[in-house]
Amino acid sequence: MNPPRGREAALAGIVLLLLAAVPFLPFLPQDQGYHHFADGRALFGVANALDTLSNVPFVLAGLAGICMLMSGRLHLPGPAGTAAAWVFFAGLIATGLASAWYHHAPSDAGLASDRYGMVIAFAGALGMAAAQKVGQRAAWLTTALALACGPTAVLWWRHSGNVAPYVVMQFGGMLVLVVTLLWRSTAPGPNWGALVVAYALAKVFEAADFQVFELTAHLVSGHTLKHLLAACAALAVIWPLRRGCHAPLMKQAGLPGFLKS
Asked: Can you give the pLDDT of all 261 residues of the chain as single tens digits?
């Protein structure tokens, strides 16, 4: 069995295990304390200004990616990788707009919109990873499945109050990306190690929202830094995909191997 075909089986196995686990998960309600953020300051009439305005980089990164796609300045692994990139950058724009709306007046309805944007971006990322590490067929199927399961998980939460399927989608998707770090690339593509590290740091700052706000003498909160770090993760996609630059992101910097695609 050649490596890509073996990877198809491994990828399918992980996805099936994640889907099979969903019905057995305990009911997990949305913690209403999630809507309480450390920095509630307004600026120029914008409520929760820094948490709201720090979503602008998501929109800018998404627009930059789409412009580069339209001008042919990004080198992607085949049509499936290109389609997944469109989904990813569109998801970034949707995430930025929806998250800004959510943080302007936090509520479950706004959070749902935010999560719809994020699962679209996740779907694009997973599709690009499959195109780079496995093959075109796996990329098409992965993108389509993620686009179906992600919004369904958010919709299920809004209908039933159970956020567990969304948690599986979010962290299961990151698990898939971590697994792909063990596989040699079959085509040029994003640097998933850098993206995973940036995302992990973003989650750390999200959890330490109030602590960071206190440590910085109320200069900036952890949630604001979470937005900036997560948006910067788009560089791990855009930079190594530039035409004429197929080396993995930061390869020349001598970083540890786990940061290299």
From this structure: 345 678 899 898 998 999 899 989 999 999 999 999 999 999 988 999 999 999 999 999 999 999 999 999 998 889 999 999 999 999 999 999 999 999 999 999 999 999 999 999 999 999 999 999 999 999 999 999 999 999 999 999 999 999 999 999 888 888 898 888 888 888 878 999 999 999 999 999 999 999 999 999 999 999 999 999 999 889 999 999 886 554 443 343 333 343 444
pTM: 0.89
User: Rounded to whole angstroms, how far apart are CA atoms 135 and 138?
Assistant: 5
Domains of the chain, residue spans: 49-189+236-259
DSSP one-letter string for the chain: --HHHHHHHHHHHHHHHHHHHGGGSPP-BPPGGGG--S----BTTBTTHHHHHTTHHHHHHHHHHHHHHHTT-B--SHHHHHHHHHHHHHHHHHHHHHHHHHHHS--HHHHHHHHHHHHHHHHHHHHHHHHHHT-HHHHHHHHHHHHHHHHHHHHHHHHHSB-HHHHHHHHHHHHHHHHHTTSPPSS----HHHHHHHHHHHHHHHHTHHHHHHHTTTS--HHHHHHHHHHHTTHHHHHHHBTT--SPTTGGGT--GGG--
Residue type, 26: P
Contact 221, 38 (CB under 8 A): yes
Q: CA 3 to CA 153: how far, in whole Å?
A: 32
